[in-house]
Every structure is written in structure tokens, then in C-alpha cells.
Amino acid sequence: MEKKFAIAIITVLSLALIGLGIYTFNNSDNDEMMNDDSAMIVEDVSIPPTQQDDTAVKSNFDSQERQLLYLIEEEKLAHDVYTVLYEKYGARVFGSILNSESTHQGKVLTLLEARNIKDPRIDQIGKFQNTDLQQLYDELIAKGLTGEMDAYQVGVAIEERDIKDISNQLATTTEPDIIYALESLRSGSENHLRAFNRQISRY
Amino acid sequence: MKITVYSTTTCPYCIKLKHWLEEKNIEFTEYMVDRNPYAAQAMISISGQRGVPFSTIEHEDGSMDKIIGFDRGQFEAVLAK
After folding, report:
1. Structural domain for A29, as ranges
2. pLDDT digits (tens, 9 = 90+) for A89-99
3. Cβ neighbours of A42 in B, within 8 Å
4. Distance between CA atoms of residues A85 and A89, nearest Å
5. Is B50 in CB contact (< 8 Å) with chain A?
6. Residues A165, A122: one domain?
7. Which label site among A74, A114, A151, B23 has the fewest CB atoms less than 10 Å from its CB?
């Protein structure tokens, strides 16, 4: 009896959604509903096209693309620097944060793939397409290898830079998925910054 | 006016909505929520639900209309504002 009642409720809800022209999505299970055009049978009304400045749209896309390409390599820089410093000092903070930096790269990669932008990363520790980041990596490694305290300060410098760059990008983007992902990245970098500052205060 | 459509690759109503907008020469930005988890999270955050198509129409005065599903009448009313 209860089962019949549940089936009846589900059927009524499904029909209501179909009537509204809504398709429920599920990341792991795309249950396709019956196609019903009833919600779309409305007389056509001529609507003027919206005014769009194509140059501005393209320019904004280029800017977003550049920022995402930079960001994924910046996250790789953090990962690669922490990998080298972990091997040198064996400090657990580097080990745990470098794993997190891999996750951060994955988040930016999702944004790149959603826009069909090619992943710029070179599959080699300490190698970057972006020449500024290549120079920064070399400088940070040189400093980080001079002593453990310097290594933690390198961690602070990287995380502060990440937070600043992410905040700048957040200030200019209006794309909801980028905002969602970057807020998550910034929160992660703030945690990393606190972890490095704790190490310095204990040293 | 800025129109954003959240859709999936397989949703028939999403395809109909996009064709309808294209026929009207209405520009829109599309996010595939089944391929882009951050877009999915943003959509759920904005709309409070998981149904697609979900559309937002941002007006020049800063106001935003939200439309769940493909309802031509509702779209026409919002676009005529």
C-alpha cells in the first residue's frame, strides 16, 4: 500500500516537472524524462536581438583565458616548489600541502576543459611555459634551499601571491563557475598560509 | 542584458531552449553542468534546485530574473522588460 502511494507521488511529481519543461540532472545518472512539447506551444513573438559588443566579449574571454592559463601554472609552481622542499627537509607541512596543490591544479583544469582551452602545463617538475613563473620558480628554489626557515618563508610568499592573484581574478570575472572554483582555491591557499606561518612561529 | 543558460549535454528541453534563443538571435552564455561541477554548484547556489535548463537574465538595472525550465511565455515576458 505504502509502495503504491510512493509510486503515485513520484509519478505526479515527474509529470509536473515534464509539464514545466524541466529536466533534472544528476552528475552520475542522467535520468531522461519523457519529452513533452506542451510547455513550449506558445505563439512566437519577435524579439529584437540584444546589443552586444563582440570585441568586448572576445577581449573578456581572452583575458579570462590568459588568467586561467596563468593560474594553473601558478598552482603547479607551488606544487613543484613544495615537492623539492619536501625532498630536501622532509617537513610534513610541505608533503601535505603539495598534495593539495595537485587538487588545486585539477580544479583549474576543469575550468580550462569546460572552455576547450589546452592545458599549458609541462609534465616535468620545475618547468613552465610562462617565463615569469619560470624565473620566479628558480628564485624561490634558490631561496628555499638555503635553510628550513627560508623554505617556510618561501611557502608564505607563494601562498600570499596565490591569494592576491586569485582575488584579482575574482574582482574581474563574472563567470559563475570561475567564481565558485576560485573562492574554493583562495580558501585553500589561506589555510596553507596559516600552516606555513604556524611553522615559522614554532621554529 | 546578459543571459546565462545552465544545461546538460543530453537534456532535450535545453536543446530546444538554445535553438529558440538562436532563432531569435539572442546571445547567451552556456554552462554544461554535467561537465563542469563548478557551474553545477553555482547553478544550485543561485537557483536552489537541480533542474535544467535553468536560465538567468541580468538586466541593465542590476536586477535578475531566473527561469527554471523552457517556458516561452515566461522568457518572452522577461525579455520584453
Report:
1. 2-40
2. 999 999 999 99
3. 71-73, 76
4. 6
5. yes
6. yes
7. B23
